[in-house]
Each structure stands twice: as structure tokens, then as C-alpha cells.
Amino acid sequence: MLRARIIPMLLMRDKGLVKTRQFKDDKYVGDPINAVKIFNEKEVDELTLLDIGATVKGYAPDYEQLRKIAVESRMPLCYGGGITDAGQAAEITALGFEKVSVSAAALARPELIRQMANRVGRQSVVVTLDVRKEGLLGGYNVYSHNGSRKWSVKLTELVAEAERLGAGEIVINSIDRDGMMQGYDLKLAKLVRAAVTTPLSFVGGAGSTKDMADLIGAVGTVGAAAGSMFVFKGTYRAVLISYARPPTDTRGEA
User: Fold this and answer.
1) Which residues are annotated as catalytic?
2) Rounded to two decimals, what is the model's pTM?
3) Of 195, 187, 253, 196, residue with least CA distance to 214
4) Residues 6+ apart with CB under 8 A from 24
5) Which pLDDT does position 254 carry in this prediction?
6) How far is CA 220 from the centre of its chain?
7) Which CATH architecture has domain 5-234?
8) pLDDT tens digit sequence for 8-45
9) Residue 92 clears pLDDT 90, i.e. is over it
10) Could you read off the pLDDT of 201-253 as tens digits, one per residue?
11) Could you tell me the residue ranges of all domains in the chain?
């Protein structure tokens, strides 16, 4: 049986780690290798690393940096950024990453999801969708390229297609709540959960372990991912990498 997972999600740019608010206002928060060493000691469920500069600037994954991260890590890893074909996904899993995430490339060419699943196995294919709510009464739209490019397809249709094509996991990233630390968008989470049976993870808004427990309580067994919660401490957002589990037993079977 699947169980809920608590997942630090770290953003990389120019070989360093950054953290954003609503996909803006980047703040440098450290070195990826140092972060991996810390999370090793804290026995993290899994770690996701996303290179947010790769797609926008058009460069491929930095395999040498990824190799160093994989060698250092003692936890399951997921990487996303700059992946445009199944061969790249195979190379990344060969380095030691359990999962490979695609976003913009899968939106532009959905068949890539099937190609990756055939090459590396469905369980290793993650489709990450950046989502923004349009107005107080509006629906949700999907964006790529760090929130700068809007896609016209409905969110529920996109997640259903990703599931059909072979995505082993779908990650929903709330642009509105990114870095705000005021709780997940539970309405969004419920909308997506009702549309697919594929394993899901949600990111954007977690500021406490209670927020994670609320997410898991609202939609069941999912991945509760966060960035700011694991790298900042206090009102002044001092950089301090940490890891904590929700007060509920998220390690039990669902």
C-alpha cells in the first residue's frame, strides 16, 4: 500500500539552490550537495530537485552535478529541468535517480510521457504541472517556463491525459501559494484527486506540519512537498535546512 510522503522540493539555478515566492524574488539558500548531506542525516522520505533555469534558458541537465548528488544521497531522488527526450531520462536514472520529472516538454509533446514510461518504467515518470488560480471565482490554469507561459488545456484534462499516457506520479505546484507558507490550496488538491487515481504530490503553501496533515486528511495518501518550510526559519527567513513530519502517522498504510 502507498503511504503519505513528506518531500523537500529544492530549486536549482546556476548550480546553486534558490527559493522563490510566487515564482519570483529568488533568494539563494545554499549548495545542493550540502543540502543532500543534511537531508541524509534527517532520513528524508525522498528529495526532489528542479532546475528552474534549464527550460527557460534552453540547456540540458547537468549530468556531472547530478552524478555528484546521486553519489552523495542516501534517499530516493527525483530530478526535473531541461528534459526533452526519453534518452535523457534514461541517463538520469542510470546515475541513481529514482524519478525524472517533466513539465514544459510534456505539455508541448504529451507523447513524451509514454516514451519515457516505455524507456525507464512508469514508476520513474513524474509530470509536474505549475498551476495558477484565475481570479476569486475563476478556475485553474496551467503554466510553464517559470509561470510565464500559459496553456489553454483544462487542468483536469491534462492530468487525465498524463495518467493515460503513463505518468507514474503527478505533482501539482501552486504558483499562488509558492513560498507563502499559509497552507496548501485544498480546493485544488481535491479537484485533482477526483480526476485521477495516479499517485499525487502537492507543493506550494506548506508552512507547518499541520498544513501537511491537513492536506493528507483532505485528500488521502499523497506526497506533501515543500520548499520554504524546509529551508527557512523565523520571520526574517533565515536559511536553516530542517525536516519534520506532521503530527499524524503518515508512515502507516492507507
Assistant:
1) 130
2) 0.92
3) 187
4) none
5) 34
6) 18
7) Alpha-Beta Barrel (3.20)
8) 999 999 999 999 999 998 899 999 999 999 999 998 99
9) yes
10) 999 999 999 999 999 999 999 999 999 999 887 665 767 788 877 655 444 33
11) 5-234
Q: Which residue has the cell 546556476?
A: 14
43: cell is 532520513
What residues have CB less than 8 Å from 229, skipping those under 6 apart?
Answer: 181, 206, 207, 208, 211
